[in-house]
Amino acid sequence: MLLRRAHNLIFVSRLVFVFLCAWCINRYNAVAGWPLWTMMTLCQLSVFAQMRLADLATAWLRDDTHETLVSTMPYWEHCPKWVESMFRTWYSASQIYTTVTIIIAGPGMDLYFVMILPYQLYSVLMTFVRKGVISSRTCHVTYFWSLWQSWICGFMLRSPRFFIQTQFLQILIYCTRVYGLNKYVLWIGLCIPVQLSLFHTWPTRSGQELLDYPTMSTMILMWLVLGIGLKFFTSTPLFDSRHARYVEARPKRLILRSREKVSSTLYHLRFDFPWFFRWQGYSSGLQPGQHVKLLCKNASQGLKLWNGHGNLEMSVEHLSRSYTPINSSKEPTVDFIVKYYPSDSSAGFADGGRASKLLCEELKEGDEVWLSGPHGGKVYRGNGNFLVDGRVIKADSICALAGGSGITPVLSLLRQCREECRASYKNPAAQQDLVKEFSVIHAMRSDDERLSPMWYTPITELGLAPRCTVTSLATKEDPALKRQTSTPREGMLARYGKLSTSVVEEIFPAPSENVVVVICGPKGFVDEACLPLLREMNYTNVITMW
Ligand SMILES: Cc1cc2nc3c(=O)[nH]c(=O)nc-3n(C[C@H](O)[C@H](O)[C@H](O)COP(=O)(O)OP(=O)(O)OC[C@H]3O[C@@H](n4cnc5c(N)ncnc54)[C@H](O)[C@@H]3O)c2cc1C
Fold first, then answer.
1. Is 106 helix (H, G, I), strand (E, B) or coil?
2. Does ligand 1 have an atom closer than 6 angstroms to the CB of 171?
3. Residue-wise burial string across 339-363, b where 16 or more C-beta atoms lie within 10 A, e elsewhere
4. Edge to edge, what strands does the sheet with 492-496 contain?
5. Residue 538 to residue 542: CA distance in whole angstroms
6. Residue 318 beta carbon below 6 angstroms from any ligand 1 atom
7. Burial of 81 (0-12, 13-18, 19+ CB in 10 A)
8. Range of the domain at 427
9. pLDDT by residue (tens digit) across 270-315?
10. Is Transmembrane helix there in the keyword field (predicted)?
């Protein structure tokens, strides 16, 4: 929310600034020569200042770098996907249109003024949506129409030939940006031909120069030159991996791609987005530890008793259950590890778990479930930074205590750390910030619930930081399990026994300012087993992820 406001303010300030620049040179009737060049150069610099300030605001407020203003706008329930996609495309295209206008439009104040209004209007409309005065549908329709005004005015205020030529320029810029070309390269590529065209007809300038000057081909040439320079002489990536976030507060569809049993009680379920969103490169956008709510058909609807107890969910058609995706925020699928609760009369659960039975037994490949989210705070802010009791703690070592299916946030955190390691491949400075050690204690009833090592360090992640050691702690004694068994892969241990200070002491690094402990699992495990034990051992940076 804060980040969205900051970005909006920066965006509008840029328009106000260019409007004032244009007003100044019109006021003193100096629309040629050096005054004109100064005005246009200042406008172009304001584009880069805005991008830099927006980047700084993102880093400062420590939000997701891949969440854009457009991708996080809320939509109404059951909004058709083509409508949502049309709005998003239109908003992104309008942002591009505004920037192109600032770079090429010159001293005309009219368009700048017209453009300030829709962006301000959006902030006001969103406030009304939050206060329940208007619906998000009204907000989008009004904003959509207000953006149209600036296109219509653009068409009326310039010659049709100029307007059409700039549309081609914008389509090319839009497609290149959607493909992910670095935004600084993109806009420097446009500024240079505009500067050259200014000198071409010095000291006067009309929109005609852009038509006469080979702007488009010079821009493509500049992209190539800058791209080669960036690729071979700097560590800055030429393409950003930008992903629109799929998960939203309103329920959206997921389609089951595959289901696999990964231990005696755990199943791995992989879901796809509908093809339209898959094709557009969406990702879940969930940060480690955040979870979603899956809506499943209620098998206990109309039944007074469930597992021998009164059924509190007797009258609801769909159950809402929380699950934590295990993949990193940028992956194109949503993966869950779900604990299976079968019908088991001998254990006192004649009916079993409603959602888990549906997900692990009944759902077929190609079937749909609905999800909403994200829920839960963003406790991990990237590069080892955690938010602990309102303070940002930089961790070199992460220790995780997970009970049963509580291993899921741990896996997503581990994958996010590895993703950061992969991203820092060409940047030695960023490598210093990476988390170095990741120690996991996974407590479970019996050893056959243990996940195989490939869940922690798949072949594709071998050699990437952080180094991960996992100890599976089975509480049920198993004669087949030796006192301590080391699996062939380094860093995996299986043992049985209760969670105790001596076990934790042996596995986790000693408490210190840069050691963060995350705990996830059922309430009893967290409140009764983990928290008192960690307090006793003087671990101060403790985060409960569920
Ligand atoms: C923030 C959050 C994140 C979560 N993330 C995950 C996750 O990633 N993966 C995951 O698997 N779960 C996760 N859970 C738990 C999940 O939301 C459900 O509570 C769980 O799947 C059980 O739901 P159900 O409808 O199947 O059980 P219900 O029908 O609601 O049954 C209630 C309870 O009965 C007990 N029960 C039923 N059958 C048996 C049996 N045969 N043996 C023993 N006990 C039984 C279980 O304790 C079960 O929770 C999360 C919970 C929270 C709060």
1. coil
2. no
3. bbbeeeeeeebebbbbbbbbbbeeb
4. 484-486, 492-496, 467-474, 437-444, 397-403, 515-520, 542-544
5. 10
6. no
7. middle
8. 379-546
9. 999 988 788 777 888 888 878 999 998 899 998 999 998 999 998 9
10. yes
Nearest to 344 by CA among 334, 356, 332: 356
Query: Residue 352 CA: which ligand 1 atom is closest?
Result: 38
What is the phi/psi pair of residue 219, to 5°? -65, -45
Q: Does ligand 1 come within 6 angstroms of the Cβ of 505? A: no
**Is residue 402 a contact partner of residue 517, using CB atoms and an 8 Å limit?**
no
Domain assignment present for 425: yes
Contact status, residue 458 vs residue 428, Cβ threshold 8 Å: no
Structure tokens at 442: 């996974």
Residues 318 and 384 in one domain: no
Atom of ligand 1 nearest to the CA of 358: 26
**Ligand 1 near 291 CB (within 6 A):** yes
In the numeric block, which tokens belong to residue 7?
């970005």
Return d(Cα 81, Cα 358) in angstroms, integer: 27
d(CA 105, CA 117): 18
528 belongs to a structural domain: yes
- Has residue 240 been placed in a domain? no
Radius of gyration of the chain (CA): 28
Residue 464 pLDDT greater than 90, yes or no? no
pLDDT digits over 50-74, tens only? 999 988 887 676 555 445 566 667 7
Q: How many residues does the structure list for the chain?
A: 546
478-512 tens-digit pLDDT? 666 554 544 434 566 667 678 889 889 988 999 99
Tell whether 342 and 389 lie within a shared domain.
Answer: no
Protein residue closest via CA to atom 49 of ligand 1: 353
